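Onboarding guide, step 5: your first structure request.
Type a short instruction followed by the sequence, for example:

Predict the 3D structure of this protein.
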Amino acid sequence: MKHARLNVAALSLAAALSLAGCKKNEPATPPAMPEPTAPAPAAAPMTEAVSVQGVSVGTVAAADKSVATQAVIGARDPIIVSVRTFGTASNVPVVATLTYQDGQVAGEQHVSLNTSGPDTTNITFSNSNAWPAGTYTAQVTVNGMPAGTAQQFEVR
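The system replies with C-alpha cells like these:
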C-alpha cells in the first residue's frame, strides 16, 4: 500500500511536468516599463538679484547718500539707517527696525527697493520728543530675509 501511494504521487508529478512542457508557445511577457514621467518644470527666471553690501547708522547723509557710522547719537538727532546694495531689484521690500535696549520696538519703516546697480537706501527715523537715552539696535530685512549686520548704537 505504501508503494502504491508513492507510485500515484510519482505519476502525478510526472504528469504535471509533462503538461508543463507541452504548453503552447506563448509570447513572453515584456518587462514592465516605468511609467512616463512629466518633464521637470523649468526653473523660474531670476528677475531680482540684489545683495546687501552693508548697513550703517548715523545722523547725516552725504551727497552720495553714504552715512558715516556713529556709535553715539544725540537724543534729538534723526537716526538714519543706511542700506548699501548691489544688483537689480524691482519693488523689493526693505524693512528697518529700531529696538530699544529692553527689546521694545522704537520704530519700524518699510520702503521698496528699485535699483539696477550699486545703490544706497536711507531710512530716517525722527522723534518729536527726545529719544530715550540707552542702547538701540538697528536691524534690516530685504525681501523678508535678514540683511547686513545688526548695528548697535547709544543715544545720549
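Each response can be followed by summary notes, for example: The radius of gyration is 38 Å.
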